[in-house]
Every structure is written in structure tokens, then in C-alpha cells.
Amino acid sequence: METSSTQCPCEKARKPHIVFILADDYGWNDIGYHSSLIQTPNLDRLAQEGVKLENYYIQPICSPSRAQLMTGRYQIRYGMQHSVLMSDRPHGLPLGEVTLPQVLKESGYATHIVGKWHLGHFKKEYLPTWRGFDTFFGFLGGGEDYFTHRIPNEIVETPETYRAFDFWDGSKPCLSENGSYSTHVFARKSIELISRHDKDKPMFLYLPFQAVHAPLEAPEEYINKYAHIRSKNMRTYAGVTTAMDEAVGNITRALKDHGMWENTVLIFSTDNGASKAGSNWPLRGFKNTLWEGGVRGVGFVSSPLLKVKQRISDALLHISDWFPTIVRIAGGSTFGTKPLDGYDVWDTISEGTPSPRTEILHNIDPLIAATNSDASKIHGHSTFNTSVKAAIRVGDWKLLTGNPGNGDWQLQTFDGKIKEKSTGVRGKQLWLFNIRNDPQERKDVSDEYPEVVQRLLTKLSAYNQTAVPVYWPDIDPRSNPALHGDLVGPWM
Description:
Belongs to the sulfatase family. One of its GO terms (molecular function) is sulfuric ester hydrolase activity. Its cofactor is Ca(2+). The protein has 2 domains: 17-351, 3-Layer(aba) Sandwich (Alkaline Phosphatase, subunit A); 359-466, Arylsulfatase, C-terminal domain, CATH 3.30.1120. It has 10 helices and 20 strands. It has helices spanning 41-49, 62-71, 100-106, 182-196, 220-223, 232-257, 292-295, 322-329, 346-351, 450-466, and strands at 17-23, 51-53, 56-57, 110-116, 135-139, 150-152, 163-165, 168-169, 172-173, 203-208, 264-270, 299-302, 311-313, 317-318, 359-369, 388-394, 397-401, 409-413, 416-420, 430-434. The strands form 5 sheets. It has a 10-stranded mixed sheet, sandwiched between helices. Strands 15-16-17-20 form a 4-stranded antiparallel sheet, covered by helices on one side.
């Protein structure tokens, strides 16, 4: 882990602007440079001009990825191992965690979030503007209608017809955007921030798009670009993706038009793999699984400040690395934060030096376990229960235990989905793969390398001993938006 205080990779008087774009549920095979099915010319160009991160990992679901981005720490450190944060439960990223925008503000940055928060809102202290952001424009929960910005109110008996509003400008509901497509709104707001920004002050713009999360919705002009695709669902998914790509292009153009691009570092990442609407081909699995399709992410960095550009990096990187890396870029310090799991990987990205990271804890979720209580003894290891859903990467080796989730392979084509079902999974609770040689996770070699299995189980056990208990509170009826003007927001 990294704790450092180093100068930014620029002139001390000109700290770079940092733009972090986070796509939602974006699949490995859904970006143009991995596949020709969906058109993403702006993302392709930015990636081609910068560094493509082809051995980059995120978490399998939304909130844990965002939490690790904001803290540089694994979710076992603060009880978020189990699921995403829910709008009807009183939980959020613990207030004791130091966030990235808080540290950047200490380095003189203006900090803005435009888009999806999803790190808690049951009390005002959990809102973005209380966690280090100067401004917030977007929505608090996990997903909603792209046009009406409403979500089903699950507290009432008829959630399908009773929907609550979740779209905010700071602490005020932004009703004026009802009917406006969120991707367009977020791009417009980002461009406004760029155009009004004091160029003498560094800016951190965090843009977590709603796209391409369900429900899949896009203006017809984008969907019609894919009339040749037989599946209506896939046509819409492709349209959502192309609208996001266009937005990224417009934002990049604004940075150039306002003289900021030459001193900007732009980072693009997904928060997890695609659901079944998209494709992680040729990787195995989907969102909410610990297979590569759930945890290996599309990512790249594009910037004139990169020392070695137009290349592909296979260095092992993780979403928790962005915290110390961005702080380094900003010329700040991580002293005073809690111990980090992330590493400063700027030299790895910018210059191509070896990654300081050699392992990743993908997760340990003790609330998801198989029923076989004797599973921990299957491989002669008594300190970690292999019925628990967990996964770890050490070097080229990856170990999975318990039930990692749907392990099928899925390719999207013009004519529809091509699925390859996984076999030999029933009753199995442990897998070992050499990811460098077998990135598609097709050949389990746990029986061939028992010593590697034991070594990785020992590491899982060590991590598990440091984990705080999962915090998963009951639904709070006071969260009912009907009690709060039909608004999703703080209720305590």
C-alpha cells in the first residue's frame, strides 16, 4: 500500500486538471477497440492517444467500486462486502473514511461531481457536498429512469406505479430537468463547469454517468444507428453507449476550447462488468460475479502529460489505486488518511515502469456461502471456509471460493446473443486459474497446484482476519419518499 507525499508530474505552479469519467455496468466487449459492434469513436480516439489499461480491475458491483475509488481502501475495511447501498436502508460510506475530494481540496482543487453518487444519503452528512465536493449535480441512488429521473418507491404496495424523484442540484431537487436525457444533462452541466472554471485553479471533475445502467433508455436517434441489430434490447444498449461516447467527445472538446486540455489528465473506467444486456466476451461471467467478466474493467488514461503515449499496458492495476495516484498527480499527500490498499501507479501508467501491485483482494462476502459447513476442509485448509464467496489474485494466479456467480460466456452479435454455458460447476466450491495464460477462466488447475491453492487460501484467511463485520441494516420505513415530498434523500 502507498502513503506518500510527492510532487505532481507537472510544473509546481500548474497543477493539472483531473477528469475522472466512470461508466456504469460497461462491458469489456462493448467499447470499440475491443469489438466492432458498438460505435465509440471518441473513447477509441482518447484511448489510442493515451494508455489502454488491459490488466485493470474493479469491483463486481457499483457501490464497492465507488467506495474504493473514493477511499483507496478495500471494502472489507468498512463493512461494504455484501451488496450495493440501498435507498431504503440507513447505510453509506462510513464518515470516518477520508475521501479523495477531501484530500484534493487540501491541494487547492475545485471539486465537482456530476452524475451518480450511490455512496449513501440517509443523513445529510453522507451527501457528496459533505464528503469533499464543492458542487453536486445528479442522483443519489443506484439507478432510475433516464428521462423522468424517478425510481420505483419500493416501500409502498404498488412500486411499479408510484415513483419517487431523485435528481439534485446541490441540496435542492432539480425538477426543471424532468424529461431531459440524463447523459445529455450531465454532459451539458460538465461543460458549464468547464466554461466557468477559473483557469488558475486546478479542477477535479468526477463524472459518474448513469449510462449504461438499466433501465436501458436512449433517444431514438441513437437507437436508430443500430437498426441492423436484430435484438431491440441490444439496439437500445448500443444507443445508450453511443450517446455516452458522444458526451465524452463534447466534454473533451470543451476542455480544448477553453485552453485546459494540455494540462488535463482524463481517466476513464467502468465500475464493474456488464450485466446480461451487454457483453464481457471473451471473459467469463457478468456483473455481480467474481469471474473476470465481473471484475476486469475497461479503462484508459488520456493526457498530454503522459510521458509515453499511444500504448497498451498490461500492468496489474486496481480501482483502489486511483486514490494515491490522483493525489500524486495533484501534488498532494496521503499522510493523514487511513492505511491504503491502493498504490501510486502514475509512473506505471505514464512511463511504463513495472506496477508496484502484485495482488488484489477481489472480495470476501461472508453473507453469501454454500450450505456445506465442512467446505473449509476440502483442501485440507481449516482457517478459511471455502464455501464463502471470495476471490483473490496473486501474481498470475486467481483463486475463487464459494459461489462466484453466473460463470457463462456471452457474446453479443448483430443477430443476437451467443451463450456458452459453464459446466462442471455444481457442487464445486474452489477454482484456481492462471489468468495470464487463461484469461477466459476455462481450465481449473486447483488439483494440479495444491501448494498454490494453500498459499492463496492463507492470504484470504489473513485478509479475512482484518475485515470488519458486514454492515447490512434492515429496511427503514422512514425512508419512504412519500413521507418526504416524493423525494429520494436524507430521512434521518
